[in-house]
Design a protein that fits this description.
The complex is a heterodimer. Chain A is α/β, with parallel strands linked by helices. Helix content of chain A is 38%, strand content 29%. Chain A has one domain: P-loop containing nucleotide triphosphate hydrolases (Rossmann fold, 3-Layer(aba) Sandwich). Chain A has nine helices and twelve strands. The radius of gyration of chain A is 18 Å and the shape is globular. The chains are: A alpha/beta, B alpha/beta. Chains A and B meet through helix 2, strand 7, helix 3 and strand 8 of A and helix 10 and helix 11 of B. The structure holds adenosine-5'-triphosphate and magnesium ion.
Chain lengths: 248, 479
């Protein structure tokens, strides 16, 4: 699914990713943990193609395609979805309208027939319920005035509707209340499938008790410094990151 | 997306840029009293109207072009403009649409205005102005049954001289301003509407304007009189073909809402804006004003996307007690366009109310100014105004300005003013693109969202058109 080799990237002339390697097979769930400022969000944005993020060396391939030479929207069409750590507000544009436009664009590029308004509304309502958001949220401006947790659930709702191949979820669990965490976890679990891969960026091992990862990685100083199975998350919970610096 | 990307996309050819080869009978350039006599004679006007025009001309000669607007352009050479032209094929007025010059129909089709379909399907009666002469009027009989008069001003001068004499120039006096004086002297044609007492006009009235003659100034004159307790909704739309030289457009629109009447006037303006440097665009200097008598209501809604220069302030004089004035505006400028637009709400009567919602969108290196006056006269006991003035910037080379003027001479009057400026941010575009939308689609969605409150005020079919127009006008304005 995803293969990253020796990826180096900088933001505003500051080197952030420094030789990152990561391979994610189809159907797998990978968790990425690591200290603040280690480059986790940067990795997501570099893969998604955020303007201002420059790759200086290395490669990244999604489904066999060179990701780095594609425009942001074409990466999305290919099936890459990034759930933002800090979702952006678009006042005045209704969530529904935004979702419909995204889904239309992605389906068009996949060669799927466009959904008529009725079937789309039906799907949107289902997704809205699945993340436990009131249907009124569909009519509100995109993330406009949403609470932190509502924004995260809104990201998951979009992910459900877009049916991506690779889901990168950047701290979707941060800021969720206890019930919402369960709702979001079961939403993500429901999306697990043999032809979809999920990367969970998280600071909390809690999420991983609900969503069992196949692999856990530690990102530190712009590189993956340690990988393991789900037990690594437990170990990190107990010992923190300090002991790893030696490893790095 | 990069700045170059944005700029590349901004450079978009004007979709309506073409001309029709209908032979015209055009007056040579220049303006003197003989020009005015020619126009008047050509239209077979009564003596009093010729005098009226000449009087306006004398005033105009003594007036100076206003310079206070936030726009810059080389001086207009008034003696190089031709002040009259009419398509030749029109000398014998067609009795039905089938008799209309096919080239003309073709022109409208290219503009996406299929005359037959629009008229029939949308139930719209159209007084189509091609250059300076009314070409065809549909549904007039049906309107006539309701007692509604909808015809060209020239016809009205002959058929309803009392009404014209009574109201022409009462809202916008000949001496009002430089361009209004010029218009009064040389106005070519335009629409006249009269709705009798208590009548609700059975359909939306609509005019499509179009400039077609090279170097031909357009001096439209519109007069709408809604008698007591009547109601009318009027749509004005226009689009112009590509031209190399700047073309002057100085229209005058007068609205009279008598006691308890309601006039809703909607405009979608898409004159040729000029090329990316602003060369060849239309200069649009318009005077639009309405007088609202007791318990009446005048509502202006405008979507302005065209013209190289727009100078336009649809205004309401709230003369009668309890009268209501509204102004809903979207003004979009791209590339080198300049707009200085807004409104005046003059509260004279008691308990008069006005609402101003202005949405300015600037892209490219354009300049967009809102200029609004709210005046509460000493007699305007209990009057209220609410003004909301929002600007949206796309890219970082454009400008938005707000010039609100507030004059309150009645302590009981309440005036509220809110203003915001926002930018289409890179982060918003990135989010849209991450979700699979291209930048242009994203911007048009954001802009449409920004304009929602105004689009809501437009009649259905116009709202759709307006959304599409914004999309076309903004094509490539982002990256
Ligand atoms: N525009 C920028 N200019 C300079 N430094 C930047 C810029 N953007 C990000 N950085 C830096 O890059 C580093 C990595 O940031 P990133 O957001 O990827 O961290 P993270 O691992 O996601 O952290 P957190 O766990 O706090 O979310 C940080 O030190 C951050 O300050
Ligand atoms: Mg982060």
């Amino acid at each position: 699914m995803l293969k990253i080799d020796n990826l180096h990237a900088k933001v505003d002339d500051k080197d952030i990713l420094k030789g990152l390697n990561l391979t994610v097979a189809a159907g797998e769930v990978h968790a990425i943990m690591g200290p603040n400022g280690s480059g986790k969000s940067t990795l997501g944005h570099v893969l998604a193609g955020r303007p201002g993020y420059t790759v200086t060396a290395g490669s990244a391939r999604l489904l066999g395609q060179d990701l780095l030479e594609l425009d942001t929207e074409h990466r999305a069409h290919l099936g890459l979805f990034l759930a933002y750590q800090y979702p952006v507000e678009i006042p005045g544009v209704s969530n529904m309208e935004f979702l419909k436009a995204s889904v239309d664009a992605v389906r068009e590029h996949r060669g799927d027939p466009a959904l008529d308004s009725m079937s789309f509304m039906k799907k949107a309502r289902e997704a809205c319920k699945a993340v436990d958001l009131d249907l009124a949220f569909l009519k509100r401006g995109v993330n406009e005035g949403f609470s932190g947790g509502e924004k995260k659930r809104n990201e998951l709702m979009q992910m459900m509707l877009l049916e991506p191949k690779l889901c990168i979820m950047d701290e979707t669990d941060s800021g969720l209340d206890i019930d919402a965490l369960q709702v979001v976890a079961s939403g993500i679990n429901a999306m697990r499938s043999p032809d979809r891969s999920i990367i969970l960026v998280t600071h909390y091992q809690r999420l991983l008790t609900f969503i069992e990862p196949d692999h856990v990685h530690v990102l530190s100083g712009g590189r993956i410094v340690k990988s393991g199975d789900k037990s690594l998350a437990l170990e990190l919970e107990e010992r923190g990151y300090a002991w790893l610096e030696d490893v790095a | 997306m990069s700045q170059e990307h944005i700029e590349h996309a901004i450079r978009k050819e004007y979709a309506a840029g073409f001309t029709t080869d209908i032979e015209s009978d055009t007056l040579p350039p220049g303006l003197n009293s003989d020009t005015i006599r020619f126009i008047s004679a050509h239209k077979n006007e009564p003596e009093w109207l010729l005098e009226w025009r000449l009087e306006a001309y004398r005033h105009w000669l003594e007036m100076a072009e206003p310079e206070w607007a936030h726009v810059q352009y080389p001086p207009v050479k008034f003696d190089e403009i031709s002040y009259f032209s009419s398509p030749k094929a029109m000398k014998d007025r067609p009795q039905s649409l089938d008799e209309v010059d096919p080239a003309l129909i073709e022109t409208y089709n290219k503009l996406g205005i299929p005359l037959h379909e629009q008229a029939v399907l949308a139930g719209v009666a159209m007084d189509v102005v091609f250059d300076s002469v009314s070409v065809t009027t549909t549904f007039r009989e049906k309107l006539f049954e309701a007692g509604v008069i909808f015809c060209s001003i020239s016809e009205a001068v002959h058929d309803y001289p009392e009404l014209i004499k009574k109201y022409l120039g009462t809202v916008v006096p000949r001496k009002d301003n430089f361009y209004a004086a010029l218009n009064s002297a040389v106005f070519s044609d335009g629409s006249f509407v009269y709705i009798p007492k208590g009548v609700r006009c059975p359909m939306e009235l609509s005019t499509y304007f179009r400039i077609n003659e090279a170097n031909t100034g357009q001096f439209e004159r519109t007069l709408i009189v809604a008698d007591e307790g009547s109601h009318v909704s009027y749509l004005e739309g226009c689009t112009a073909p590509m031209r190399d030289e700047n073309q002057l457009h100085a229209a005058v629109v007068e609205l009279v809402a008598l006691d308890g009447a309601e006039i809703k006037y909607s405009t979608v303006q898409n004159w040729y804006p000029g090329d990316a440097e602003g060369k060849g665009g239309i200069y649009n200097f318009v005077t639009k004003r309405g007088v609202a008598h007791r318990d009446s209501k005048i509502s202006w809604t405008q979507v302005e996307t065209g013209s190289a220069i727009t100078w336009k302030y649809p205004s309401c004089i709230l003369r009668g007690d309890n009268s209501v004035g509204e102004f809903y505006s979207v003004a979009l400028t791209n590339n080198a366009q300049q707009a200085d637009t807004g409104t005046k709400m003059i509260h004279l009567g008691k308990n008069t109310r006005s609402t101003i919602i202005s949405k300015g969108i600037s892209a490219g290196h354009s300049s967009n100014a809102y200029r609004g006056l709210v005046r509460m006269s000493p007699r305007a006991e209990g009057a209220r105004n609410y003004t909301q003035c929002d600007s949206l910037l796309i890219g970082d080379r454009c400008a938005a300005h707000t010039f609100p003027y507030i004059e309150s001479r009645n302590p009981s009057a309440v005036i509220e003013h809110e203003a915001t400026t926002s930018k289409v941010s890179d982060d918003q575009l990135y989010l849209c693109q991450q979700r699979g939308l291209n930048a242009e689609k994203a911007v048009s969605m954001i802009v449409n969202g920004f304009c929602k409150e105004v689009f809501r005020e437009l009649p259905m079919e116009f709202a759709m058109e307006a959304g599409k127009l914004l999309e076309v006008s903004l094509e490539g304005s982002v990256g």
